[in-house]
Amino acid sequence: MALKLHGESISTCTSRPMFCLHEKGVDFELVPVNLMVGEHKQPPYLATKNPFGQIPAFEDGDLTLFESRAISRYIATKYKAQGTDLLRQDNLKEFGLVEVWLEVESQAFNPPISAIVYQISISPMLGGTTNDQVVEANVEKLAKVLDIYEERLSKSKYLAGDFFSLADLHHIPYTHYFMKTPKASLITSRPHVKAWWDSISSRPAIKKVTAGMNFA
Amino acid sequence: MALKLYGHPMSTCASRVLACLYEMDADFELVLVNLQARDNKQPSYLATKNPFGKIPALEDGDLTLFESRAINGYIVTKYKGTGPDLLRLDNLKESALIKVWMEVESHSFNPPISAVVYQILIIPLLGGTTDDQVVEANVEKLAMVLDVYEERLSKSKYLAGDFYSLADLHHIPYIHYFMKTPKASLISSRRHVKAWWDDISSRPATKKMMEGMSIGGNA
Closest-CA residue in chain B for A110? Predict the structure, then answer.
């Protein structure tokens, strides 16, 4: 039975496990969820896919998962032996470092970058306006985080070490959209961060997904 | 060589790791970081422990880790077989459900509950005033999240299934402080959430961790 990913390919969170599935060379079916009619907030979706009313959700036989980062970790673990080794579970030290930078993405990177992308790119699409104060406050936070990334990436090719991992992958969805905003220079002005972004965004598996990620 | 945990027992994030270390009965040394003296912002701490200037950090020989949830994932993996099975590493389905509820804690639960605790308990300690609007906005968000938890815990004893896991443990430090605020009824008014909290907060490892947690104690 095929794996089913419920969501939309333009959605940052849906794309996160899609990158992982492609890196692993695993077949799956993308089942669209009609956000415009609020399908993800309806009782059937809440009861059977994700009680928090968000996308994506993931089905593997009788197992249903949600939270994009949990889904990608599951895929990386289940298909450990094929494709890219994204979690380095056979090396405790490397695994520890992957865990660290997975959490950094979750706790330090994601809040400011998602706020900026929402304000600049998503809110206007939904008929709202961009709150410049919120943008600037989050640009300031993101800049401090990226200074630490610049230092880290001056010592190591990827975040967890000299190997591409799930920690790098989790950054891709929001950075992809961020690079289309006027704030992209936060990335391009930092040479090691820029080199890291150029490298991870040009991976064949990644390009297969980002080709479909355009808000316009 | 024992593990070294850099932090302070009154810190929620350091306590998250302490609870895990106690559950796994791991040998460790707590190295106190003086937050009032801003030890965690000094160049040597930033360079060798945590470049984000936060606690905790963990040293295991020449490996240094930070981010409490990452540290716990490492500890449970390293001591697999010697302590409780907090990640169910040999069961793909169960370990996946644990990962789901760990992410829920990170992204849905932690932001509102930490904001409420910060506003009500921590800001006054730092000489500031509680912003009631921020409290109420986050109480509303937390209430919606806890409604989902109530439904979940009506079907399963713990979050990931009928077994205690790291997903439950990660919730403990902030709930511990939250229960000391006037908003504790958000937990105690939801029957299954309350039963779950009573259960996980009475575990010996949890009680040991909570003994060290008191806001306003000496740094």
Answer: B107
